[in-house]
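Structure first, sequence second, as always.
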């Protein structure tokens, strides 16, 4: 074991840790900040917020994204909202309650101190975004409005209709563009990071490809930040945009950064069901809909009557029946598994039988269609355009789909990986959501990381270390560039028969079937045979047309899918070793008599941080024990 996992946890009482840590961290003198250069890969909520804030502080920032504009980062897709413990509703919320809900929601597989800090910072995020002009929904009297999300019994979710991510991203984007105009941030759109450069154990730069001209370039800096999003696209079918990928974090893993809890992926219960073989994208219907929509299936298996013809007595509102306290707002992992269970029993609806109803008829009767339209109008319209069914008149059909990845690069309390100088923020790190993320907590985490945590902790790193001057003639840069060139040429020279997409689709099905909503030992072992075979075939038979010196999307995708082929294997290795069930990781061998996830705290209360041991070698498992001093580990119950 070579990786040293030191979480750098501050001492002291939980509620004081972050303040105390901020006081104890070293500062960079304002006049010296411009002497430090920082690379930020990613311009989503995490990366965009970090780039704008660090530049505002005076650092010299370079920001990279593969889209044509930072405001097209995938954060733009977020619909339902962002949590914050403002307690505007006076319904019993507090920082401690948000902390508790989040750590319990994650099935006690996250660090207490990180999650507490997240709850503390949640209130600052709302102030920051309001000051930027983000148009959050408001009550009649002018106060910001809230709604409920899964896993909570209070209303603490701030929202801008069903477009919260877009509005928050516009806020971060305008702050970023201001810095671009000032000259503090140099923006590199349509530029993909293809490798990390590590010199003397420190991250000192990246190698990129200009996606328009194909030029391979080296960028040197004093620190590198990855805010490159999640890797749910490994499943091929997911709610993520097609471009989302794992390349940046996977390249960093292969350069020494530990990858934590890769098998912790989130399956979201409310997505539009798959409709056919050739579909390449799934669409989320926001969790916010479960505030007013009721989830049900027919009581009898094989009941194919139209929803309107099934009387109340023949309906099973299974979430309300099984979890009376939380009802339709049970957390995502639980709602997803229950939907799968009723479909496996033959009670699913729609042509494929892989669907459950999300029914608004009661809410429309109670509140009127106009109120429902005001709350969810754009989501209803999206649903109707995709399915050609009017959800004001017939219930929506929904089914779980891959949505988010709780795993990611391991980071300490300062959001630094085990590679000095390499910081990881937003969905790309593994930090705060444990084994299951609660709804509306990803935006909170990405913005806490970017606006409030990293700007402090990165300064501490720079002020605490003497960094040698390096330039891109350093052998480590030359070696990384050569590796990128060779890999690119290899893709182009295979001239095989199968498209990249066909390999991606096949890989995704293997991961979904054996490492998806539930997993067992036999299935995972089978997946671990299938994935290397598929990977070997990929490198033998993939077809990547065109050249490297032009816009070549087949080439871009080939690189991303090649990385998914390796990451998928690590996910299955991680899932196989964790013989307990927890959150989104449901091991069929480990369940309570009622079929709920059964943790094994004696053996698995740790973050599993995997270390790359070399090509063809088994990865090495490092464990960061999780200590719970403030909350009592209990069987999660939402009944
Ligand atoms: C449909 C949908 C709805 C959601 N709704 C909600 C919600 O209501 N509330 C909530 O809290 N969360 C929600 N989420 C989750 C949340 O949106 C994401 O977790 C979050 O926005 C991720 O932000 P990020 O900044 O970490 O990454 P992203 O926004 O994905 O940004 C990644 C950035 O990295 C760049 N990048 C990636 N790889 C490279 C590379 N190799 N080289 C260069 N650049 C690279 C991209 O160009 C992009 O700029 C939703 C997610 C989806 C898919």
């Amino acid at each position: 074991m070579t990786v040293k996992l030191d979480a750098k946890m501050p001492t002291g009482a939980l509620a004081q840790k972050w303040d105390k840590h901020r006081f104890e961290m070293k500062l960079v003198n304002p006049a010296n900040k411009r002497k430090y250069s920082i690379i930020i890969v990613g311009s989503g909520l995490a990366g965009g917020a970090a780039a704008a804030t660090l530049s505002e502080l005076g650092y010299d920032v370079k920001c990279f994204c593969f889209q044509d504009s930072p405001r097209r980062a995938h954060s733009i897709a977020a619909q339902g909202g962002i949590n914050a413990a403002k307690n505007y509703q006076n319904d019993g919320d507090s920082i401690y309650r948000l902390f508790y809900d989040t750590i319990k929601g994650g099935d006690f597989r996250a660090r207490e101190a990180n999650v507490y800090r997240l709850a503390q910072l949640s209130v600052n995020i709302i102030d920051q975004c309001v000051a930027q002009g983000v148009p959050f929904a408001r009550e009649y009297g002018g106060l910001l409005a809230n709604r409920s999300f899964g896993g909570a019994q209070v209303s603490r979710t701030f929202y801008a209709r069903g477009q919260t991510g877009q509005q928050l991203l516009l806020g971060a984007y305008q702050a970023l563009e201001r810095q671009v105009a000032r000259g503090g941030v140099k923006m590199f759109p349509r530029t993909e990071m293809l490798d990390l450069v590590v010199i003397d154990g420190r991250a000192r730069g990246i190698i990129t490809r200009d996606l328009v001209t194909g030029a391979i370039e080296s960028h040197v800096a004093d620190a590198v930040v990855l805010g490159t999003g999640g890797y749910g696209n490994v499943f091929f079918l997911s709610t993520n945009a097609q471009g989302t990928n794992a390349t940046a974090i996977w390249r960093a893993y292969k350069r020494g950064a530990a990858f934590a809890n890769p098998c912790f992926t989130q399956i979201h219960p409310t997505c539009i069901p798959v409709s056919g073989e050739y579909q390449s994208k799934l669409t989320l219907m926001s969790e916010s809909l479960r505030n007013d929509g009721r989830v049900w299936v027919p009581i009898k298996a094989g009941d194919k009557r139209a929803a309107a013809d099934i009387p109340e007595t023949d309906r099973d509102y299974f979430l309300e029946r099984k979890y009376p306290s939380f009802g339709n707002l049970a957390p995502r992992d639980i709602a997803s598994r229950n939907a799968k269970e009723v479909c496996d029993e033959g009670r699913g609806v729609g042509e494929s039988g892989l669907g459950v109803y999300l029914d608004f008829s009661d809410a429309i009767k109670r509140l009127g269609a106009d109120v429902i339209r005001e709350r969810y109008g754009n989501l209803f319209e999206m649903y109707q355009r995709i399915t050609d069914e009017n959800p004001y008149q017939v219930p929506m059909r929904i089914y779980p789909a891959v949505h988010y990845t709780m795993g990611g690069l391991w980071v300490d309390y300062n959001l630094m990986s085990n590679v000095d100088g390499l910081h990881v923020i937003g969905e790309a790190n593994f930090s705060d959501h444990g084994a299951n993320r609660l709804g509306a907590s990803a935006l909170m985490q990405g913005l806490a990381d970017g606006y409030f945590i990293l700007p402090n902790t990165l300064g501490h790193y720079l002020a605490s270390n003497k960094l040698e001057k390096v330039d891109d003639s350093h052998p480590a840069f030359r070696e990384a560039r050569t590796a990128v060139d060779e890999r690119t040429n290899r893709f182009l020279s295979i001239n095989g028969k199968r498209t990249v997409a066909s390999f991606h689709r096949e890989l995704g099905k293997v991961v979904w079937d054996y490492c998806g909503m539930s997993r067992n030992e036999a299935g995972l072992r089978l997946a671990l045979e299938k994935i290397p075979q598929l990977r070997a075939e990929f490198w033998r038979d993939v077809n990547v047309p065109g050249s490297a010196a032009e816009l070549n999307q087949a080439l871009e995708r080939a690189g991303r899918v090649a990385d998914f082929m390796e990451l998928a294997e690590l996910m299955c290795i991680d899932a196989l070793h964790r013989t307990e069930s927890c959150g989104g990781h449901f091991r069929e061998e480990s369940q309570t008599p009622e079929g709920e996830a059964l943790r094994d705290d004696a053996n698995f209360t740790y973050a599993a941080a995997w270390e790359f041991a070399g090509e063809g070698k088994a990865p090495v498992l490092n464990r960061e024990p999780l200590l719970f001093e403030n909350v009592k580990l209990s069987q999660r119950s939402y009944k």
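Margin note: The first helix runs from residue 17 to 24.
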